[in-house]
């Protein structure tokens, strides 16, 4: 009888652990789904903005650039804006051609 009680307690513990793991997995799945939904919504918004900009550029709508304090430029087309990289960011960004190159050793004077 004692063995049966011990086995029953062990099985109950295993069941509780499995339920906790299932709860954690479901919470993680819901979190990932929310992140996916947010990313999809952001992607759709950016696609709409790109399409709007392309349409306005094709129609020859007014276009202006403005710079922020961070050095980033913003493209403004009739109420829509798009952040652009600053000249420094473009210069410092590695390209595919030189991304794998090792930096040259400094030359002695």
UniProtKB/TrEMBL annotation:
<feature type="region of interest" description="Disordered">
    <location>
        <begin position="1"/>
        <end position="109"/>
    </location>
</feature>
<keyword id="KW-0505">Motor protein</keyword>
<dbReference type="GO" id="GO:0032982">
    <property type="term" value="C:myosin filament"/>
</dbReference>
<dbReference type="GO" id="GO:0005923">
    <property type="term" value="C:bicellular tight junction"/>
</dbReference>
<dbReference type="Pfam" id="PF01576">
    <property type="entry name" value="Myosin_tail_1"/>
</dbReference>
<keyword id="KW-0514">Muscle protein</keyword>
<keyword id="KW-0787">Thick filament</keyword>
<keyword id="KW-0175">Coiled coil</keyword>
<dbReference type="GO" id="GO:0016459">
    <property type="term" value="C:myosin complex"/>
</dbReference>
<feature type="domain" description="Myosin tail">
    <location>
        <begin position="1"/>
        <end position="57"/>
    </location>
</feature>
<dbReference type="InterPro" id="IPR002928">
    <property type="entry name" value="Myosin_tail"/>
</dbReference>
<protein>
    <submittedName>
        <fullName>Myosin heavy chain, embryonic smooth muscle isoform-like</fullName>
    </submittedName>
</protein>
<keyword id="KW-0963">Cytoplasm</keyword>
<keyword id="KW-0518">Myosin</keyword>
<dbReference type="GO" id="GO:0030016">
    <property type="term" value="C:myofibril"/>
</dbReference>
């Amino acid at each position: 009888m004692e063995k049966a009680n011990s086995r029953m307690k062990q099985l109950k513990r295993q069941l509780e652990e499995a339920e906790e793991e299932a709860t954690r997995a479901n919470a993680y799945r819901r979190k990932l789904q929310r992140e996916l939904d947010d990313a999809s919504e952001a992607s759709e918004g950016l696609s709409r903005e790109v399409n709007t900009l392309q349409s306005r550029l094709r129609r020859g709508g007014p276009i202006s650039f403005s710079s922020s304090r961070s050095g980033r430029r913003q493209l403004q087309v009739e109420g829509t804006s798009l952040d652009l990289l600053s000249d420094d960011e473009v210069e410092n960004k590695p390209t595919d051609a030189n991304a794998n190159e090792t930096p040259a050793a400094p030359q002695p004077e």
